[in-house]
TrEMBL record, chain A:
Name of the coding gene: nqrD
Keywords: Cell inner membrane, Cell membrane, Ion transport, Membrane, NAD, Sodium, Sodium transport, Translocase, Transmembrane, Transmembrane helix, Transport, Ubiquinone
Protein name: Na(+)-translocating NADH-quinone reductase subunit D
Protein EC: 7.2.1.1
Pfam families, per database record: Rnf-Nqr (PF02508)
Topology relative to the membrane: Multi-pass membrane protein
Function: NQR complex catalyzes the reduction of ubiquinone-1 to ubiquinol by two successive reactions, coupled with the transport of Na(+) ions from the cytoplasm to the periplasm. NqrA to NqrE are probably involved in the second step, the conversion of ubisemiquinone to ubiquinol.
TM region positions: 43-63, 75-95, 101-119, 131-152, 185-203
InterPro entries per UniProt: NqrD, NqrDE/RnfAE
Lineage top rank: taxon: Bacteria
Cell location: Cell membrane; Endomembrane system
Tagged with keyword Hydrolase: no
The family this protein is said to belong to: Belongs to the NqrDE/RnfAE family.
Reactions mediated catalytically: a ubiquinone + n Na(+)(in) + NADH + H(+) = a ubiquinol + n Na(+)(out) + NAD(+)
UniProtKB/TrEMBL annotation, chain B:
Organism: Flagellimonas profundi
Family assignment from sequence similarity: Belongs to the NqrC family.
Name listed for the protein in its UniProt record: Na(+)-translocating NADH-quinone reductase subunit C
Functional note: NQR complex catalyzes the reduction of ubiquinone-1 to ubiquinol by two successive reactions, coupled with the transport of Na(+) ions from the cytoplasm to the periplasm. NqrA to NqrE are probably involved in the second step, the conversion of ubisemiquinone to ubiquinol.
Membrane topology: Single-pass membrane protein
Catalytic activity: a ubiquinone + n Na(+)(in) + NADH + H(+) = a ubiquinol + n Na(+)(out) + NAD(+)
Names of required cofactors: FMN
Gene: nqrC
Primary location: membrane
Subcellular location: Cell membrane
Lineage of origin: Bacteria, Pseudomonadati, Bacteroidota, Flavobacteriia, Flavobacteriales
TM segment ranges: 12-33
Amino acid sequence: MALLSKKDANLIKDPLADNNPITIQVLGICSALAITAELKASVVMAISVLFVLGVGNVVISLIRNIIPAKIRIIVQLVVVASLVIIVDQVLKAFAYELSKTLSVFVGLIITNCIIMGRFEAFALGNGPWKSFLDGIGNALGYGVILVIVGFFRELLGSGTLFGMKVLGDPVSKTGLYSIGYENNGFMIIPPAALIVVGIIIWVQRSRNRALIEEA
Amino acid sequence: MAVNTEKNSYTVIFAVLMVIVVGSLLAFVASGLKPMIDENERFEKQQNILYAMGVNENEGDGDVSFVPTTQVEDEFSQYITQQLVLEGTEAVEKENAYLINVEKALAKAKSGEKAELPLLIGEKDGEKFYIIPMYGKGLWDAIWGYMSVGENMEIKGVYFDHRGETPGLGANIKQRFFMDDFKGESIMDDNSYVGVEVAKGNNDPLNSDKEDNQVDALAGATITGNGVTAMIKESLKLYKPYLQTIRSN
């Protein structure tokens, strides 16, 4: 990372592992539960949040000195909501197919606690470049977990990845299904995501004991 | 900058300015892009209608694939031979009936008011398709679609779409493995218009029984599935008077 100073690089690296928004800060759980039943949706959501958080952090950081403290949360909400609406409109005009896949996520992006959390905790107190890196880092950290959860839920729940039947056909009993394997229907309902996230948290903390909070 | 951001007057001014700036920015973007968005939506409607009558680019077991937007207008005028609006059993031709807002028309008709219910007639390989628009409610938001039936009231194809069903669960109503199941089902049971039920316990995942007025439900999407059942039923109720005249002919 010659492009970035060590401090700047850490802004991106930390949220990927030791300060992950989902597994350590336990933010953004709601969307991690809602949309990870398939891998494609996870990826789309990760990219959307990457964009909104990166740009939003910069905007908030640029106007951080003129935002009245009393209504800062409202200002943050306005910034997120307008960004998301503009993106949605532009996609509808120029990439209609993509916008249809995304439309479901628009509401979920606005209410994503990671976005408000980073605005509040970082962008309000740091310059635009640092805020941009922080936004990208946190969005990537969020995305990584989303993709992992989406991978396991789609694979175990539907036997597919990106909609492709990787384990064989469950109806005509080919591939793994010919030897008695069955899809686990439990994996496609939201509570399963909570369990997968829980396992990730467990694995992460048993590998790095410094992360374990004192009871 | 030496502004006192704590002052109430500053807060109020900031809020007012913010609303004006953001509001006009959004209005500007929305009105600037509107013609393009409208056109995209019109193409989508045409694609969906053609899809329901089996004019699409589906290949094998692949994903849903529509007629490309560049050709959709030509193909639409080629396959759709008549655009009608219904009032009871009366059918009148009307240009661009497919653009009628189905949600409002169905709601009006349901409450007993006078409404123009759109119905399209298509022709493919010498066969007639009656294409019925539908509108209903899923788990989170609206669901809608088109259903094409032949003269014998057998379903030739359906297309479903939704605004906010859960990805991977209810959103799968617009996947081929769900929509294809409707093909060949009859909307009639003896002489009553029962529609097709999205059923959980029909023990027929391959959907080989086409006489049961049922298709296999989606796991984890009970409410969306019930919504589809209700949507088909409600829409059929309104189109029944006209469909009866086709059958008796």
